[in-house]
Amino acid sequence: MEPVIRLEGVARDFWDGVRRRRVLQPTDLEFWPGELTVLAGPSGSGKTTLLTIMGLVLAPSAGRVWVAGEEVTGLSEDALATVRLKRFGFVFQSAGLVPALSALDNALAGRSIQSDRVAPGLRERALELFDELGIADYARAMPTQLSGGQQQRVAIARALLGEPAVLLCDEPTSALDVDSSRVVLDTLKRLARDPKRGVVLVTHDPRVFPYADRLVKIEDGRIASDTKDKAEG
Amino acid sequence: MRRHIALRMLAHDRATTAGAVLGVVAIIFLVGQQLAVLNGLFTYMSVLVDHSGADIWITSEGTDNINSAGDLPTRYVDRLIGLDDIAWAEPVVSGAGFLKRKDAQFQPVRVVGVRPPRMAGGPWDYEVGDNSVLLDHDAVTVDWLDRRELGDPEIGDVLEINGQRCRVAAFTRGARGFSGTLVFTNEKKAREVGGVPDDRCSSILVKLRPGANPAAALARIRSLLPRAAATPTPELSANTRLFYVTQTGIGSSFGFSTLIGVVVGVVIIILTMYATVLNRQRDFAVFRALGARRRDIRVIVLYQALFIGFIGILLGFFLLAGFLFGTSGSRLPSFMPLWIPPVHALLTLGLCVVGSALAIRRAVRIEPASAFR
C-alpha cells in the first residue's frame, strides 16, 4: 500500500512586509488511505498552511510532494488544478458554497468545473450522496436556506462526488453547533473507513481528537507529535 | 457546468448584471441612433443623385459635391446624345430661391427644374400627385414633411419664389435636401425663378444604353467634354457624402457622439463586470481550489460577458427599432441600412469581450489558497 500523500522536506516561507518568515519548517509526512488524520494546533501554528500545501493549493517554498504515488512538485498551475479535481475533495471552514448555486449545483460544480457539461450519472450520484448525508430534501435549496450543518454536509457531498483519494477538511466544525458538529464528524469518520480514501482534518478543537485515527500536533510550524490510534487530547 | 455557473451567478447578482446590460444597451442605442441619423443625413446629402435614374452625371469641372456644382453649357446635351452608348441625356436646372409663404414670411428653398416629358432628376415618390403635374408651367412640388416650414400650403395654393408666381401642384414624399428645402418644377419655370439663361444648365444626366460598357462610355464622354466633370452616379453620391463628412463639422460631431456612446457603454461594462468579480472573489477562489484552471475562470467570465452582450443587444435593438419606427416619416432624418445592425451587434459583442478583459484578469489572479482564509 502506498501513501495517498507524501511530503518530503516541505517548508513554506511568507513575506510579512518586513522580512521573510518561515511559517512551516521542513516537514516529512505520509498520509495513508483508510485513516482519519487530525492536524491539530493553535492558531498560526501552520496547520492550514500544511493542509493547503498537501492539497496543492499553495506551492511549498521547499520540498517535494507526491499524490497517490506520483510526484507533483513543479507541475504547472493548470496541471495541479487537474490533480486537485481528480484526487482531492475539499471541505472548507465555512462550507465555501457558492451562494448563486443551489445545493445540488454546488455539489456538481466541484466535479464539473472544467467542463460545460455534467458527466452522465453524476447528478444521480450527487443525489445518492445527499440521501446518504441526510440532506436529500435540500438538493434544490439555495445555500442561504440551509443551516450551517446542512451547508457543511453539502460541502462534503461536493468533496466526495469525484471519489477523491484524499478528503481535506479545514476546521469543518468551527462554525457549527455541537449537534451539527457531531453529525459532520461522524460522517467524516465513516468516510475514512474506505480503504481507498484518506481523510485529513485540520482543527484546533480538542473535541475532535477522539475521532482521529492519527493525531499530528503542530506548533510553531513544526510537527510536535505524531500519534497513531487512540489519539488523545 | 461552466456556462450554467456563469448564468446562475449573473442571475444571482441582478443589480450588477442589470448595470452591465445597461452599458450594452447604451452602446447599441446611442451608437445606433447616431448612425441612423447620420445615414438619414447621408440620404439627404445625395438625395438628388441617388434618385436620378442616371448612370453618369455631367457637372462643372472640379465639382466635389452635387450641391455646389456650377453651371454648364446646355449644348453639351446635344453632343452627348450623338454618342452611340447613350440612351438619353437630360439637363437639370437648379438654383437657390426664396419662397414667400402665405403669411408673407420668406423661406429659402432649392429649386430643381427638370425637362419634360422624361422629368429625369425629378421627384421619385409622391404623397399627392405625380410627375405629370410638372407639365403645367407654374407647377411646383413641395415635400409632405416640409409643409409646415413652407407655411402649410395646400394643393392649388399660389406662392412666389424669387418673386415668380408658382402653384403648389403636388406633394412629394422623401424628397428632402441637405442644403435646403427641395422644390421641384419644370425646366422652364426653374430658369424663370433662378434667372438661368437657356444656354446654361446646372448638370446633365446621362443614361447609357443597355449593354453599353460604362468605363468606355465614361472615357468617351470625358474626351468629348474636357471642360466638364463626368462622374458615375455612385461615385458622385459618395463624393457628395464624403465632402460633407470631411469638410463640415458633421463627421467629427457624429464621430465624437458615437465615440462617447461607445466609451460610456464600455466603461459601464468594465466597471460592473469588474465589480461582479470583486464581489465574488471568494466564489472564484473556491472554484480554483476545487480544480478550476485559469482557463475555466476565463470561460466563466467570458460566458457572462457574452450573455450580458446578447441581452443588452436585444434590448438595445428593441429600443432602437422603437426610435426608428417613431422617427420614420418625421422631420428627423433617420435611416438604418440593413448591413449596419449585424455589424453593430458583432462589434458590440466584441466590446463586451474587451470590456470583460479587466474582470477576467482580476478573476484569474485570485489565489485558490484564499478559499481557506
Characterise the protein shown here.
Chain A has about 230 residues and is α/β, with parallel strands linked by helices. Helices cover about 30% and strands about 25% of the residues of chain A. Chain A has helices at about 45-55, 75-85, 105-110, 120-130, 150-160, 180-190; strands spanning about 5-15, 20-30, 35-40, 60-65, 70, 90, 165-170, 200-205, 215-220, 220-230. A 6-stranded mixed sheet of chain A has the order 6-7-8-3-9-10. In chain A, a hairpin with a 4-residue loop joins strand 1 and strand 2 (about 20-30). In chain A, helix 3 packs parallel to helix 5. Chain A is globular, with a radius of gyration of 17 Å. Chain B is α+β, with helices and mostly antiparallel strands and about 375 residues long. Chain B has 2 domains: about 1-45 and about 250-370, no CATH class; about 60-225, no CATH class. Chain B is built from 12 helices and 12 strands. In chain B, helix 1 (about 1-10) packs across helix 10 (about 295-325), helix 2 packs antiparallel against helix 11 and helix 10 (about 295-325) packs antiparallel against helix 12. The longest helix of chain B is centred in the last third of the chain and has 34 residues, at about 295-325. Chain B is elongated. The two termini of chain B are about 25 Å apart. The model of chain B has no long low-confidence stretch (mean pLDDT about 90). The chains are: A alpha/beta (about 230), B alpha+beta (about 375). The interface between A and B is medium-sized, with 35 and 28 residues.
Radius of gyration of chain A: 17 Å
Most strands sheet of chain B: 6 strands, mixed, barrel
Dominant shape of chain A = globular
Counting DSSP H or I runs of 4 or more residues, the number of helices of chain B is 12
Distance between the termini of chain B: 26 Å
Average per-residue pLDDT of chain A, rounded, comes to: 87
Beta-strand content bin of chain A: 25-35%
Secondary structure tally, helices of chain A: 6
Order of helices and strands of chain B: HHHEEHEEEEEEEHEEHEHHHHHH
Q: Please list the strands of the largest sheet of chain A in the order they lie side by side.
A: 6-7-8-3-9-10
Radius of gyration of chain B equals 29 Å
> What does the main sheet of chain A amount to?
6 strands, mixed
Q: How many structural domains are formed by the residues of chain B? A: 2
Give the structural class of chain A: alpha/beta
User: Roughly how much helix do the residues of chain B carry, as a percent range?
Assistant: 40-55%
